[in-house]
Amino acid sequence: MSMLTPLAILPARHQELLRPWAQESPAELIRHAIEQTSLEDPAWIYTAASLLREQLYRQVPGGYAHFRDHVTTLVRAGLYHPSLVTVYRPEELDAAGQWLKPERDRLFHYAGLKSLADRYLVRAQGRLRELPQHRFLVIALFLAQVYGDHKLRWAYGFYEALSQLQITVATPVLANAGRAVPQLASCFVDTVEDDLASIYRTNAAFAQVSKWGGGMGIYLGHIRSRGAAIRGMDGAAGGVISWVKNYNNTAVTVDQLGVRAGAVTVWLDMWHKDILDFLDLRTNNGDQRLKAYDVFPGVSIPDAFMRAVEQRASWFLFDPHEIWEQRGWRLEDCWGAEWEARYQALVRDPAISRREIPARELMKRLLKSAYETGTPFVFFRDAVNRANPNKHAGMIYASNFCTEIAQNMSPTRLVDERLEADGRIVSTLASGDFVVCNLASLNLGRLPTRRARLRASRLAVRMMDAVVDLNAYPVPAAQYTAHRYRAVGLGSPGIISGSRWTTSSGSRPSTCRRPTGGLRRSRTRRSPNRWPWPGRKGRIRCSRARIGRAGRCFATAGIPGAIGSGWRRRWPPRACATGICWRWRRLRARR
Question: Does residue 402 have an active-site annotation?
Fold first, then answer.
């Protein structure tokens, strides 16, 4: 490891330009190097990274030497997970230490190395305790422990892919894998029932998720609208917005020890009576008592609404509680033709109260809010449920914070609550589908051949499969759902078309433009009988199929953008994140 003066590690041309500031602090040298970065000489960003790298090396005594001692010390300090020394023998840790390649730290540009050092490397009492290659190797060892006698072979493959920046794992994996509390899932989605217990149970679950760094999606379409009846008293209900403000306060309060505020998306259906207030949730005008500026609203849109916009037809808004009381079913519990038949039945029923509004006026309200605030997010429910491989086992109402996953959803329900003779209160809950999002992405800029991409894809799926088993889930319902579906998402930043994954039935290749994927095969160590999922229909020829759902969603670009994916591609002019591109050009031409 280099311990030379800062300028000695730089290219000769950059040494000369920085020599006037040679006596200044390393931070000042880095600042001057960043200021020199330009389109004409972009190499300065790597010069700044070199200076920062030397600064990091000086903060960790011993550097990359004695990896086993490094792991043992941090386990004793409570900074690493104990499994690193209980699962791996000392000689195995020594062998893993020989894999470390410090020269791969040079692959980072300044922004990537700075982000990694500030947000992901282990610190204690303000002191840096690990270096970038330590982080990658600890992640690899921690995830590979589930592979038994083959764990070192898989750990080596994981480390090689991670350290060469061929695979980028999700933020929670990069930050928490191998740490004392390994919460490794990126996002969660919960469904709220129309009762106080469910509303506050979801709030408590959101607090736990936010505490450990996860984002949250919350579907509110079951909740009765403002002015609806409560126990027969008309006009008593406060509506959806009052509960959204409750989740807003939780997002602000549970802020991961001041690191960042909680991230939550709240979803509502386009036919809900509170949709107009919901669309104005983050705008600056209107009644401030109906505002919540720290949540991100999203709307669930059926195909029928888009056709109503095209045809300049009216749109009707209903109260879900009234529909349940009058009809005994919920409109949001179906999709496609069944949904449209129920919607038309409600329109024809004079006993059901409704609010009529031109569909185009409602779309204008949505577009106005999107122009002013960047929200709401949009979720085309019919398209997603049509593509859902597990549609026989449930319903998809909404998505997560990044709108990149779509899985079956259902609320957790209270079955029984009783007081024991010794004063204990025992509550029994029936777990619903509390959606869990496990993500990774491929850095196609460092995977030039099809063979390399295929190998990296297999490694990434293996890593995410291990995440499902090793994750410290913040709520039990999330663990139940994750093990039930074993859902993973593998994408690629900076490109709209992903790897060529085929469905389990051998149908045509899919692309990232589709919101969900069919069942995938993944040859892993356990038999399907031990890990059944609801999506398994009939006999699957692969005897070791395990992954219940795999999506090729468009991965978020936080980490890949920081490390420099090396891959950029212009989006096709008609590209759409959900694959449901309505003919807006034709609509505009009609005007």
Answer: yes
